[in-house]
Amino acid sequence: xxVLVTGATGGIGFEIASQFASAGHSVILADLQLAQAEQKxxxxxxxxxxxxxxxxxxxxxxxxxxCTSQFDIDVLINNAGIQHVARLEDxxxxxxxxxxxxxxxxxxxxxxxxxxxxxxxNFGRIINIGSIHALVASxxxxxxxxxxxGLLGFSKVVALENADINFTINTICxxxxxxxxxxxxxxxxxxxxxxxxxxxxxxxxxxxxxxKAFIGVEEIAATALxxxxxxxxxxxxxxxxxxxxxxxx
Length: 249
Fold this sequence. Notes:
Elements: E1 2-6, H1 11-22, E2 26-31, H2 34-46, E3 51-55, H3 61-70, E4 75-78, H4 93-121, E5 124-129, H5 142-161, E6 167-174, H6 180-193, H7 197-205, H8 217-227, E7 239-242
Parallel strand pairs: 1-2, 1-4, 2-3, 4-5, 5-6, 6-7
Helix pairs in contact: 1-8, 3-4, 4-5, 6-7
Protein name: 3-hydroxybutyrate dehydrogenase
Pfam families: adh_short (PF00106)
Family: Belongs to the short-chain dehydrogenases/reductases (SDR) family.
């Protein structure tokens, strides 16, 4: 299968690309930063895997058209994400819109572009990398929470529209994962809450999770790989929550 991973140079994206490549799939590492994507793809090809890189701005229609015309994509993994932490009244409107464009409109437009090919081949898998914030909310993250909540509804509609073929779409929702994006959030939340970074980790990030641990990128990648296996062919429109028991409360 040809697997397109957006935001592929980040911690989650590259782990997903690595696990799919090691499972024998052809992976396309798509990222805004082409040089980094090429470096990461070269690391995989050096291990004997099939990997390539492409520059992709998920908010740019021309980029989406170029990417999807170049590859027959069997599996789309919508992973690209950004974050901004601020009270709503302090949230720059352009930044608010950017978060929705990257994490909701982008996945929708990419899905729209790959669906005709998937329908023609009678096979397709779309996996959205959501967040615990697709299910719950935290202060100062209005745009991020809105985008991730929207992914769940979007996925249900697309699943219904394509239930007549061998197609599934699902959303993986992890609690906090120790990635560079989260490292930045720790610093930003420390400033917003007037706490130390360690206090942010203990009192905000891990406090709601009974297991008190960050989710590993390898867990997310393995879940994505499972969703593309024959055993998951009837799992569609679902939210797979990796939260250490957070939402059990």
